[in-house]
Design brief:
The complex is a heterotrimer of chains A (about 280), B (about 425) and C (about 190). With about 280 residues, chain A is mainly alpha-helical. Chain A has ten helices and four strands, in the order αααββαααααββαα. A two-stranded antiparallel ribbon of chain A has the order 1-2. A two-stranded antiparallel ribbon of chain A has the order 3-4. In chain A, strand 3 and strand 4 form a beta hairpin. Chain B has a two-stranded antiparallel sheet with strand order 1-2. Classes of the chains: A mainly alpha (about 280), B mainly alpha (about 425), C alpha+beta (about 190). Chains A and B meet through helix 1 and helix 10 of A and helix 4, helix 5, helix 10, helix 14 and helix 16 of B.
Chain lengths: ~280, ~425, ~190
């Protein structure tokens, strides 16, 4: 079965080597995010419910002051594969928000408490208002942040292989940026832009408009976990990863069934093929 | 294939239908009794794999359209709506996106197989040229499909590629404005790309039918390149080729689904998860991986017009490949020098792909230019010359002879079949 | 071509059947996502309930609200209308089922079973004719209730079918009172 081996080798080579080069980006000055192990990585990866709940708390109490999550609805918080809050908790959380609705019969817009079906309330009505309130910098929408930002940058000849195993490092990026504020080196400090902080992990950095958002015990976790900066950064990174793809757990468990099924089918087809061809010379 | 039909329906309903519309006969002759060379290897299964990938893309595409909104304000959100809210939407959307990549993986293998075994040579020139046309339609379809999610790379890819046409002398600007339906890539552009992305797959189906028709007229080639001479050389399509194709397809799908479920974003670009912004260009604009070698050729030429000509020419040259190759022998298995040139071309194509993925700076430019020159030299200089100069190895007298010789050398103890 | 009949034909048959069966199971499983994707998405299901304030509806007036894409008719009935509805003998009705999602299945089509006890003035029902889905017009028809202009179905003041091609009473959606004048539909 030399041909089979050649075929498999060609497919493996083709998919991992040739294709992945697209993902290769020249390593710039941006620091690589610290690679940590999250519970949701790997073939059987699952989110840690308690971690997602803590992460949501960090988002709600810290990030949500400036950052929207326009694709998320409160109901998502109760869905399978996420923080899995109870229906009552979801309703209560939604009701805390004020949602603009309307027009009513008089043609007026009005405000009402949020419902589970509502999208997360945005801190600003539109992008211009958000920029005006933040000194011209746009606080990026966080729904897909772990999907669209890459934390890992490697030379082009290894990048495709590393990323096949580790992914783009989006969750690690979020975590590292939140923890990565430091004093600028002396040569950089002298032309520091006004009102900006130094953060070598930031994609468009090293100067970032966002002031260090986390400080020790900035939130109080209900489960008693100590709210260190690292803990909060890790938790919110996990939460944002879930938010980027709320159905990740379903995808992985379904994938396992599909691949297992195809492996069985392939085995049977291989045996059938051998039988059918029998002693036909080929 | 030409020849007398052996279809003889026993079922009275089938006989009744066959007397009035010989559809069962066509199916039987094409997919059951159709004789295929008995020495086809697994590289020959990719035609069937491509057929399935095409159907898979069309089915998932039709489904995605049920939930997608082609409007600049809603396109991005509607794709996210599919991934978040639609039942099985997460999988269906990725199946289609990753499926495009695997469609191209299969088509590149299929083309390379054709080049290696000289499948384009007489009498199969039309079959080959229809294949090149299929590849062009696939490229156009893939490009327009990538625009639809309306992410940053969608938008800027569309802008850069449509701007290629501005290289046309005199009419360039007018053509680009016409393509866009405005002064930039905008809603009008998105909607026409959506319309054409839905139309072109059905054009593809039409050309594929012609491709298969042409195949059934000339019969399949085979690894020896020797034409079928007698019934000894062939074997019935069903069950022999069917089960072999099915096995290969199943293995191909293991790899495909592994990507769909475990690395769905690997073949795409992270930045496409950011909604299109006409005011900000991403740092590196690169097309999807399957365009990279051609993108590298475009950038290798310093002149705008000539770059576009070189890029399109690099595919158009395949149309005249049957006449560029002067050798009388088809298969690389019997052409020692050509065989090495073939692998050099594969390496060259791979290098072009790597160059296309990297920014056009420093020595990447030089590498890209050398690889581009070699690419054209292969087709325009080396191929015609080597056909005249090379001494091919002796060909087997028939396919069955070659098979028996191979089996005999492999397992000397085995008694000859038949 | 040889036909090579092997002695182990039974095993061969079993292998072919097993392969075919596994393939068929896969094909069937493949159909599930392709079909299920057309069912209501999570976002549609999430919008399945609305709240309506009844206080602005004057006696003798109706409002129409949209719920799950369909009109829901809410009528503040007059005493005369309620009386007319109660006077009907259920046995005379073409459809003797209450068609009310809030009472037990198969309850009789009395007016009491069509409304909420103590709130009999408010009739909440789908504005979708049970014939072919048109919207019936209020204060029309031979029974002072609703009349469907498409194919001439007459409904009474309790929304029950009395005459015409429609087979069933106008269905009453699932709803409950959140306060004295506020209901939640769905």
């Amino acid at each position: 079965m030399k041909t089979t081996k050649t075929l498999l080798a060609a497919i493996a080579l083709g998919t991992s080597l040739v294709l992945g080069t697209t993902a290769a980006v020249a390593a710039g000055k941006q620091h690589n995010a610290e690679d940590i192990s999250f519970s949701f990585e790997g073939v059987f990866g699952h989110f840690d419910r308690a971690q997602l709940q803590r992460g949501y708390l960090v988002y709600k109490q810290v990030c949500a002051a400036c950052h929207s999550m326009s694709l998320m609805s409160y109901r998502n918080l109760g869905e399978r594969g996420g923080p899995e809050l109870s229906e009552a908790e979801v309703k209560a959380l939604a009701a805390e928000a004020t949602i603009q609705d309307g027009p009513n019969d008089e043609g007026e817009m009005f405000e009402r408490p949020g419902l589970p079906s509502d999208r997360f309330a945005s801190p600003f009505p539109n992008m211009q208002a958000a920029m005006a309130a933040n000194g011209g910098a746009y606080p990026v929408d966080l729904t897909l942040i772990t999907k669209k930002r890459e934390g890992f940058h490697f030379p082009w000849y290894v990048s495709p292989f590393i990323k096949l195993v580790k992914g783009n490092g989006g969750p690690e990026y979020v975590r590292s940026v939140l923890m990565g504020y430091e004093d600028p080196p002396a040569d950089a400090a002298k032309d520091a832009p006004e009102g900006k902080s130094y953060n070598p992990y930031f994609a468009a950095g090293p100067w970032i408009s966002m002031a260090p958002p986390l400080s020790e015990d900035a939130v109080e976790y209900a489960d008693g976990t100590k709210a260190s900066v690292e803990q909060m950064a890790t938790d919110v990174a996990a939460f944002l990863t879930w938010a980027g793809e709320p159905k990740m757990e379903q995808r992985k468990s379904m994938g396992f069934q599909v691949v297992l099924y195809l492996a069985l089918l392939s085995l049977l087809l291989f045996l059938t093929k051998k039988r059918v061809w029998g002693r036909e010379p080929h | 294939m030409s020849g007398h039909s052996t279809y003889n329906p026993t079922n009275p309903v089938m006989k009744w239908l066959d007397d009035r519309l010989p559809l069962p006969r066509l199916m039987y002759d094409s997919f059951v009794s159709y004789p295929v060379p008995r020495n086809l290897n697994y590289w020959y299964t990719f035609g069937g794999i491509l057929m399935i990938m095409m159907v898979s893309q069309i089915i998932t595409g039709i489904i995605l359209v049920m939930h997608y909104t082609p409007h600049v304000d809603m396109a991005f959100d509607s794709v996210e709506h599919i991934r978040r809210n639609v039942n099985f939407g997460n999988v269906l959307q990725k199946w289609h996106a990753v499926g495009a990549s695997f469609f191209f993986i299969a088509v590149y293998i299929h083309i390379a197989r054709g080049m290696y075994y000289g499948s384009y040579k007489a009498p199969r020139e039309i079959l080959w040229m229809l294949g090149v046309a299929i590849f062009l339609v696939m490229m156009a379809t893939g490009f327009m499909g990538y625009v639809l999610p309306w992410g940053q790379m969608s938008f800027w890819g569309a802008k850069v590629i449509t701007n290629l046409f501005s290289a046309v002398p005199f009419f360039g600007e007018a053509i680009v404005t016409w393509l866009w339906g405005g002064f930039s890539v905008d809603n009008a552009t998105l909607q026409r790309f959506f319309s054409l992305h839905y139309l072109l797959p059905f054009v593809l189906v039409g050309v594929v039918i012609l491709h298969v028709w042409a195949l059934h007229v000339t019969g399949q080639g085979n690894p020896t390149g020797v034409e079928v001479k007698s019934g000894q050389d062939t074997i019935a399509f069903t069950p022999f080729a069917t089960v072999k194709d099915a096995f290969a397809l199943s293995v191909f799908f293991i790899v495909f689904t592994a990507f769909v479920f475990y690395a769905p974003d690997y073949l795409g670009h992270s930045i496409n998860y950011e909604e299109a912004n006409p005011l900000v260009t991403p740092e590196h604009i690169v097309p999807e991986w399957y365009y990279l070698p051609f993108y590298a050729i475009l950038r290798a030429v310093p002149d705008k017009l000539l770059g576009v000509v070189a890029m399109f020419g690099s595919i158009m040259i395949w149309f005249i490949l049957p006449w560029l190759d002067t050798s009388k022998v088809r298969s690389a298995a019997y052409r020692p020098i050509f065989k090495q040139l073939f692998w050099l071309l594969m390496i060259d194509f791979f290098i072009l792909g790597v160059v296309g993925a990297n920014p056009p700076e420093g020595w990447w430019i030089t590498v890209g230019q050398i690889a581009t020159v070699y690419y054209f030299a292969h087709f325009l200089i080396l191929l015609p010359l080597v056909g005249l100069l090379e001494t091919p190895r002796p060909l087997p007298s028939s396919i069955s002879d070659a098979v028996l010789a191979k089996n005999a050398s492999k397992q000397p103890a085995a008694q000859p079949a038949e | 071509m040889s036909t090579a009949e092997a002695p182990d034909e039974d095993r061969r048959d079993f292998l072919y059947i097993a392969t075919g069966a596994v393939g068929a199971v896969g094909a069937a499983a493949l159909a599930v996502p392709l079909i299920d994707q057309m069912n209501p998405s999570a976002s549609v299901l999430a919008l399945a309930s609305i709240e309506v304030d009844l206080s602005p509806i004057e006696e003798g007036q109706s409002i129409t609200v949209k719920w799950r894409g369909n009109p829901v008719i809410i009528r503040h009935r007059t005493a005369k209308e309620i009386e007319e509805a109660k006077a009907v003998n259920v046995a005379d009705l073409p459809d003797q089922d209450a068609r009310n999602a809030n009472v037990a299945d198969g309850s009789a089509a009395t007016d009491e079973n069509r409304v909420v006890d103590g709130k009999t003035q408010y009739l909440v029902q789908m504005g979708v004719c049970t014939h072919l889905g048109c919207v019936p017009i209020g204060n029309e028809g031979e029974y002072d209730g609703w009349f469907c202009p498409c194919h001439g179905s007459h409904y009474d003041t309790s929304g029950r079918i009395r005459k015409g091609p429609a087979p069933e009473n106008l269905p009453v959606p699932e709803y409950q009172y959140l306060s004295d004048t506020k209901i939640k539909i769905g």
